[in-house]
Specification:
By secondary structure, the chain is an alpha/beta fold. It is built from 23 helices and 18 strands. 47% of the residues lie in helices and 14% in strands. A 7-stranded parallel sheet has the order 3-4-2-5-10-1-11, sandwiched between helices. Helix 13 packs antiparallel against helix 14.
């Protein structure tokens, strides 16, 4: 009996090239169709839009082999990308503007038939919606309740506010769903970020101004109603806004004092842990001390959420309404009060202090959702070790679970890994001589590598120090920047691809866990080599120490360092290493410039069967690279 037949979960460390998407979809769809509790819906979650297309293409192939009923699929992305002129605050778009109800009904039904005639990628649905003058987002969501498979972002399940607004409106229940999570190594951090909010004195000042503007708008509505109806109008919203405005003025004063006190205590430290319960108490006491009729916290949060003001997004660098941001933070503090998994950290932003909420345990969010769903598959090429992710996400005890590590289908000879044992980026060992040795290893590799090379480092500071400040003869240097958009990344990929066979050779330099090192497919073997410099260990901050302490309490001191620091860092390196090889026919060499990777503690974080050649000087590195490309002089070309 398979794990899905027990409504359990498979955590699979499944490298690129073994067909994990097709296998996971086939298994999940088969179980969903034949579930003894009735037919289920498969929810495929991924943070990468490129993976959406892979899923759609895979389901088309599955349907081509089916004799009977075909798989119905709906592909969804954010509403901002699917609608025309979406007003984020009113929730209205212009997709169907000017279309009569009679025409609209037929147009919507036509788009629905288009979605279901065969699996469609979301871009195709959006284009059809524009042609038919139909809201593709609304139509796709309406189709969801009648489909077998929905492809969307993790947030639709694992972020409370999004799930409440999404699944219920689509008629989807978790109890009737099987979950498939792609790139599941990202899920814990995605859940943590879902509960990360920031509070500053500026946010509170803006909240007061916004509530005053909102109250003025409500007063105008009341006045207009009185004038038109000649009778007493409902003033509830205006009165609520007035009460909230009074409360915000006192909150601004009391929380401002709290921030100033924290700033004085901080001294020379960069940040410090604070008490989320005390912060919530300040808000609650401010509410109680301001009003004759105390406003409860849930009522205050609802009033903040109701604020609507005019914002020029073209002129405002931060168009999000401050009252909405405060409402989200208060909701987290109120709903998680007394929960040791929620921490708050104070630090300095500019001249002002700020408090940030941090979720230490993503399991408090994931556990009840995994318990409710009818099983699933969580997979990634770097889900190492799978059992760690089961612990972190809090698999319910009553659920069956299986942890699997699958071996890579790629011959090790086609992607050898070379470890340099004479260099490091450990802070206390950094020196001009060490930096020189790192560059010499890279130079040795570049001299014998015929095509493009990517190099990844732990930080933008090291990227500048080692790469940007270096000299790279016969190479065009492309340096990743923090502000790069998806279109900028695509431009770089297009440039690499167009010059793959002839043209300039590039040295592409990026940072672990950023855009270039993860989630990008360098298809067509456009990289001949990848260089991984250093280990991207989390900095020794108060929030990271709190995370380590929490994990130590839950899983023991032995796992604290591995779960909180070492394994995530090594998985980031594994992600970077995997950029060059996407298919069995590809070939590339990987150079790891960090001697600590060979130490027992870090080496234990690597997948089984990953063997490395050792080098202790740039001449040996150059010789190993030369021999590799003599054995594999030309990459296998794709026919795509």
């Amino acid at each position: 009996m398979t794990i899905l037949e027990k409504d359990g979960y498979l955590f699979a460390a499944a490298p690129t090239g073994i067909g994990k998407t097709a296998a996971a979809l086939s298994a999940a769809l088969a179980r969903a169709n034949d579930h003894p509790g009735g037919k289920k819906t498969v929810l495929f979650m991924t943070g990468r839009q490129s993976q959406h297309r892979i899923v759609v293409d895979t389901v088309r192939k599955i349907n081509a082999r089916r004799d009977g009923e075909k798989v119905r699929l709906v592909d969804l992305i954010g509403r901002e990308s699917m609608c025309v002129d979406l007003d984020r605050f009113t929730g209205k778009c212009s997709c169907e503007f000017g279309v009569s109800d009679y025409v609209l009904q037929d147009a919507r039904e036509g788009l629905r038939r288009y979605i279901f005639e065969e699996p469609k990628h979301v871009d195709d649905v959006v284009n059809q919606g524009k042609q038919r003058k139909v809201c593709s987002w609304a139509c796709a969501r309406q189709c969801a309740k009648d489909c077998d498979l929905i492809v969307f972002d993790y947030n639709h399940v694992f972020i409370d506010k999004v799930r409440e607004a999404s699944l219920e409106s689509m008629g989807i229940e978790l109890t009737n769903s099987i979950l498939v999570v792609d790139e599941a190594h990202n899920l814990p951090d995605r859940i943590r970020r879902g509960l990360e909010r920031r509070l500053t004195a500026k946010v509170l000042r803006d909240c007061v101004s916004e509530m005053q503007e909102h109250r003025g708008n409500e007063d105008k509505v009341v006045a207009k109603a009185l004038e038109e109806d000649g009778a007493e109008a409902w003033t509830g919203d205006a009165e609520e806004a007035l009460l909230a405005e009074k409360a915000l003025i006192r909150i601004r004063e009391q929380v401002g004092k709290h921030l100033n006190n924290l700033k004085r205590v901080l001294g020379d430290d960069k940040e410090q842990m604070t008490d989320p319960g005390k912060l919530l108490e300040i808000f609650q006491s401010s509410l109680e001390g301001t009003l004759d009729e105390p406003m409860t916290m849930p009522r205050f949060i609802r009033t903040l959420e109701s604020v609507r003001i005019e914002i020029d997004e073209a002129l405002d660098s931060d168009p999000e309404i401050a009252c909405h941001r405060l409402a989200e933070l208060l909701d987290i503090l109120y709903m998680r009060q007394g929960d040791s998994a929620l921490a708050t950290v104070f630090d300095i932003l500019g001249e002002e202090g700020r408090i940030t909420t941090h979720l230490l345990d993503p399991g408090v969010v994931a556990r009840p959702l995994l318990k409710e769903a009818a099983g699933g598959i969580l997979m990634s090429g770097t889900l190492f070790p799978p059992s760690m992710y089961g612990d972190i996400l809090g698999i319910p005890q009553e659920k069956s679970v299986s942890y699997k590590e699958y071996t890579s289908p790629f011959e090790s000879d086609r992607r050898p890994v070379v470890l340099a044992t004479d260099v490091t980026t450990r802070y206390k060992d950094r020196s001009a001589a060490n930096t020189h040795r790192i560059r010499e290893h890279i130079h040795g590799l570049l001299r014998k590598t015929p095509g493009h090379v990517a190099v990844f480092l732990p930080s933008y500071n090291l990227l500048e120090e080692i790469i940007e400040d270096g000299s790279w003869p016969n190479r065009h240097l492309i340096i990743e920047e923090r502000t790069w958009s998806k279109s900028r990344v695509q431009d770089v990929l297009d440039r690499l691809r167009s010059s793959r066979d002839s043209g300039p050779r590039y040295l592409l330099a990026g940072v672990y866990n950023a855009r270039l090192s993860e989630g990008i497919d360098y298809e067509g073997n456009i990289l001949d080599a990848v260089v991984c410099v250093g280990i991207p260990m989390a900095p020794p901050t108060a929030s990271n120490q709190a995370l380590r302490d929490y994990i130590s309490d839950r899983f023991g001191e032995r796992n604290a360092w591995k779960y909180s620091a070492a394994q995530p860092a090594m998985n980031a390196i594994l992600q970077a290493m995997g950029r060059a090889i996407r298919k069995a026919e590809d070939r590339a060499i990987v150079l790891v410039l960090e001697r600590r990777v060979g130490d027992r503690g870090y080496k234990a974080c690597l997948p089984m069967g990953l063997n490395m050649f050792h080098t202790d000087n740039s001449e040996t590195t150059e010789r190993l690279v030369r021999r590799f490309f003599q054995r594999h002089p030309e990459p296998a070309r794709t026919t795509e």
